[in-house]
Amino acid sequence: MQSDSVARFSLQPGTHLPPGAWPDDDGVNFSVLARDAVAVELCLYTDGDAQPLQCIRLDPRRNRTFFFWHVYVEGARPGLRYTWRVANAGQDLAQVPELLDPWARAVDDEHWNRRATMAGDWGHALRAIVTAPAERDPLLQPVSCDLNDAVIYEVHVGGFTRHPSSGVKHPGTFAALIEKIPYLKALGITHVELLPVMAFDEQDVPPGVAELGLRNYWGYSTCAFYAPHPRYCIDPARAPQEFQDCVRALHAAGIGVLLDVVFNHTSEGGRTGPVINFKALANDIFYHLDRNDPGNYRDYTGCGNTVNCNHPLVTNFIVRCLEYWAANLGVDGFRFDLASVFARDENGNVMANPFLPWSIELSPILIERPLIAEAWDAAGLYQVGAFPGMHWSEWNGRYRDLVRRFVRGDRGLIGELATRLTGSSDLYGASNRLPANGINFFTCHDGFTLQDWVSYNGKHNVANGEQNRDGSDDNLSWNCGAEGESDDAAVLELRRRQARNALAILLLSQGVPMLLAGDEVLHSQRGNNNAWCQDNELSWFDWTRLESQADMLRFVRELIALRRRHPALRARRFLTGDIQADTNAPDIRWHGRELDQPPWHDPDAQLLAFTLAPTQPDEAPLHVVLNMADTTCTVALPQWPGLRWRRALDTARVSPDDIRPPAEQVVLKAGEYPVQAHSVVVLEARG
Are 181 and 121 within one domain? Predict the structure, then answer.
């Protein structure tokens, strides 16, 4: 590429800090880290133009400070597109790719072609957009720094509103999510956990997947950590402002915003992947490389490369990026994908006290915000219950697996089930953590939806173009007697009951529950347990199901309301069974078929019951029975002086009797209750 022969802008040396593109009234300061560069060029574009408006060759004597190259462009304005070109020793600047600024706050992907770039055609780069700084706003302050009372809703920004039935003005955008806030509010959730919204490479898919016309849908392929994904924006040049508008609207509704962030790998992949930014700017700093073969990228993520998180420059980059999303864009907290990568040193060894997790949680801006680790990686490091740091929460994979086994009917799990129901003290108690440090979930984006979990014993991922090799084979599921779609009334009724059981147990457990968007209306992916590339109706939220699955939606809303009116289900300390002074009763009593006789040592046990004492004067005592056996069991009910038990929930009953608000509950007259096979019963005691 040749520079434009006519200079369009006047230049000044500029400053090296802050990195990125920062406009003021007179122009824009550009700065990028390129430690080993011997020649650097800044290419400027107007919106839509294939050829640069101007290419600026930087002078190392005037435009370099330490590891940074910089220039101030007089008269440049927000909306201008730009790329960097960097030549290291032995390279010709005319033969190197154009690079996306790692500090870009907005991205233009109109010209991007991943496969062409990998083939050496450099004219298809991702471009950064100069954008006005995102101003801080009081409405962007955190809704709550405490997850103890949270009900999290994991949702894909694009897929939530792309279905033709969504009825929004701009489907698949942050603006469309704003239109659905009344639905979120009515559901009762307190936080949305957004699947990746940092700019990612939708073209990052294997060749066989690309040939089917599929693309990277989930977004675990970040290319620009500071920029909201352009496809989620109406105008990518206003990406920070559009994301702010979404957060502001959610906060106004009392809903917190958690981001699923991907700092363990990038969209550049391994040796054969494209050069987008870090490979040319700081390859040996930003990635884990094989010391014996620096062209080979160590892969602890299953995605081709691994970010060298505990290098000081990389740690600083990640922490400052998180601070930007929190302080400037209003994010309440973060969930970190494959976070155990954060515990590896530059040789891939596990560190006892890794720099990055501590640096994140000790940041003055991040110190009180929720930090949630997916505490494992793809190379076998599993740290659930032991993730390094002080107050990190974790996705509790142990909870998911145990409760799935119990609900499908596995025997002899009662002892561990009680531990999971009460917040997993075996994982978090010894390190002085709390029940809220465990994020409980039954389903998430990765794996079967709830409807598919009750409908399939095996995965059905042929549509992904990888011969059904992708996705987990260990789903711990039960199809209730038929694989996939069925017209058997008994099978369908059992599936709905099992779905209600799973959701009921989740919302009745101590710790923080997380729901997968669509489970409340029994969304199915037709047995696909790895829909990462399915940006279509297989994954999208179908809004017609609000009517066709109204009974299930009502069940979930009432279930969340039940949890919210019982602080005893959200204990801030682990339950002990000790007598409480204010109620003169144990905080929890365990039972089996008979009172105070839990079947701890019965290898065939499939039933467990417990009674929770109230924690506030206006709270009702709670009695819960979980029966996953194939037979009905009549259980004895405890007495509570002056109060009578009322049926709040029975998953074996047909809507609306499956769950009732307090004003509609039936009073029980007998001292026992017949609990049907495969069902959950919840009773509330009132006068």
Answer: no
